Amino acid sequence: MNFRMLKFAAFTLLVAMIGLTEAKMQNVTIRGVTVCDKHRMAEVVVELWEKDTLDPNDKLAEMYTNRMGEFELTGGDDEITSILPYLKIKHNCKVTIKPGYVIDLT
Questions:
Q1: Are the C-beta atoms of 103 and 87 separated by less than 8 Å?
Q2: What's the confidence (pLDDT) of residue 32?
Q3: What is the reported pLDDT for 83?
Q4: Residues of the chain with confidence (pLDDT) below 50
Q5: 3-state secondary structure of 63
Q6: Separation of alpha carbons 62 and 72, rounded Å
Q7: 87 near 50, Cβ under 8 Å?
Q8: What is the pLDDT of residue 38?
Q9: pLDDT score recorded for residue 106
Q10: At 62, phi and psi to the nearest 5?
Q11: Which pLDDT value is given to residue 43?
Q12: Is the Cβ–Cβ distance between 93 and 81 less than 8 Å?
């Protein structure tokens, strides 16, 4: 390994260590009701995710809605910047929303 590569590796390690020490735990809670055609939807999968820029997005929580279509998810992540939470709702309601539609919580 030459000196230039060694310097780069040391710099990368330093940046990673600074990032770890500056990160802070951030939490989010979301409550809601799934509804399709004016009827509440039971047993729908609801996922709480956090969008990341440089690495894969993080799934913070997942649950099925209760018999009344209600859900409450809480999750958290250590991040340097503000977390960007979003929901994924897996349903079989016949709606005109494109697949992969994301509800932005910011």
A1: yes
A2: 92
A3: 84
A4: 19-20
A5: strand
A6: 9
A7: no
A8: 87
A9: 52
A10: -150, 145
A11: 93
A12: no
The two three-digit tokens of residue 27, written as one number: 């939490």
Which amino acid, one-letter code, is at 25?
M
Q: What gap in Å lies between CA 86 and CA 103, rounded to an integer?
A: 6
How would DSSP label each residue in 70-87? EEEEEEEEEESS---EEE
**Structural tokens at position 36:** 């399709």
**Rounded (5°) CA angle 101-49-37:** 40
Tally of CB atoms within 10 A around 23: 13
pTM of the model: 0.69
Torsion of CA 35, 40, 42, 48, to 10 degrees: 30
Q: Cβ distance 83 to 24 under 8 Å?
A: no
Tokens of 67: 């018999």
pLDDT for the residue 67: 96
**CA dist 63 → 16, 25, 43 (Å):** 33, 22, 9
